[in-house]
Design goal:
Elements: E1 7-10, H1 14-26, E2 31-34, H2 37-47, E3 51-55, E4 57-58, E5 61-62, H3 64-73, E6 78-83, H4 88-97, E7 101-104, H5 109-115, H6 126-129, H7 133-148
Parallel strand pairs: 1-2, 1-3, 3-6, 6-7
Antiparallel strand pairs: 4-5
Helix pairs in contact: 2-3
Length: about 150
Amino acid sequence: MNPTDLGLLIDDDELYVRTLQRSLSRRGLETRTATGIAEALRVAEEIRPAFALVDLRLGEDSGLTLIRPLRALRADMRILLVTGYASVATAVEAIKRGADDYLPKPATAPMILRTLGLVKPETVTIETTMTPLHRLEWEHIHQALHETGG
């Protein structure tokens, strides 16, 4: 994959996806965004992205349903599934359906670049591989909101 290749970010959290888009752009990786399944398929058909970052939960829908159609559009597309509700079963299902990798949410620009092989391993610092406190807080808040329907 080249840094000049176009990517597709698919997440129903518009604030998160726009923030991630800006962060990737600052690092030289251009992307388009989609917030739902229909929009994602339309944009993917239009741009034929080199990679797609797909959120597991897209409102009431599952991002897992996008893996096969995306793969059919471009066999060499790198498909990364992200979720704040990681489980071994979901990771296995994502890989079975054709995802290339599975990342915890919130996936950061450095994590994505590293996963796509666009950052040399020696440039990765220990700090980027540790779970920061703000991320643990974010995961806890989202899990609590999910469990309470809020």
